[in-house]
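TA notes, week 10

Several of you asked for a full example with nothing omitted. So below is the full record: structure tokens for the whole chain, then the designed sequence directly under it. When grading your own attempts, check the secondary structure regions first.
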């Protein structure tokens, strides 16, 4: 792996800053995400679309590897330089408190150390709703309210800086394609990643606050900080 600690820690600081910044308090509208090309579930085209999304969205910037032909591609933390400090320690003194260490996980389909034991729907639910796949049943989720529409009553969320709060605005076609690539387009790579640290509520208190993570669906254009383009 050829990425230095600056790349990983810079990405972590940026993600943490974006995570904390949030947006202005306005009522959301039902604006739909941009359309994605239709692909059939289980097809090679679906896997290739997922591959393109993973590369273009720089998943390797946190999860490892310099490209699909490199060793450890998306295999997760393989050195301490790939870990992120979230909290006061990420912006100030490295020893400042509170501080939680988060570790990008192994995304390859290795059954023992990666995503191999999860279904594509569980991976999709993680990308769409930010739910840890090991704590989320293999079901269609139709609500973001805990306890409704198969949304877990006690959500166990992915820890920052995983940017699922932005990824949820992608289309279901795109997110399903990413899940298909991670399950069916990668070779398994054995790499055991230690659990990320987090507060007892699994970040639920933060993610429930739309001023911190932004509303879903996204507000219609133009929102408070936008303006229509002039002809």
């Amino acid at each position: 792996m050829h990425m230095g600690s600056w790349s990983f820690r810079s990405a972590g600081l940026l993600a943490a800053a974006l995570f904390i910044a949030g947006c202005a308090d306005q009522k959301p509208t039902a604006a739909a995400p941009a359309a994605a090309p239709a692909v059939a579930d289980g097809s090679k085209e679906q896997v290739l679309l997922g591959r393109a999304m993973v590369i273009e969205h720089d998943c390797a910037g946190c999860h490892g590897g310099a490209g699909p032909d490199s060793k450890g591609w998306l295999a997760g933390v393989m050195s301490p330089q790939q870990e992120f400090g979230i909290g006061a320690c990420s912006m100030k003194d490295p020893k400042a408190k509170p501080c939680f260490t988060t570790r990008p996980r192994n995304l390859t389909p290795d059954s023992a150390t990666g995503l191999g034991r999860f279904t594509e729907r569980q991976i999709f639910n993680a990308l769409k709703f930010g739910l840890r796949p090991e704590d989320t049943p293999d079901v269609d989720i139709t609500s973001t309210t805990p306890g409704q529409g198969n949304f877990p009553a006690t959500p166990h969320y992915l820890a920052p800086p995983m940017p699922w709060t932005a990824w949820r605005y992608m289309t279901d076609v795109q997110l399903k394609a990413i899940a298909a690539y991670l399950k069916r387009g990668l070779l398994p790579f054995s790499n055991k990643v230690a659990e990320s640290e987090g507060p007892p509520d699994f970040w639920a208190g933060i993610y429930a606050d739309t001023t911190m993570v932004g509303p879903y669906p996204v507000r219609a254009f133009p929102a408070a900080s936008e303006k229509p383009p002039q002809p």
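Residues 1-32 have pLDDT under 50 and may be disordered. Use that as a sanity check on your answer.
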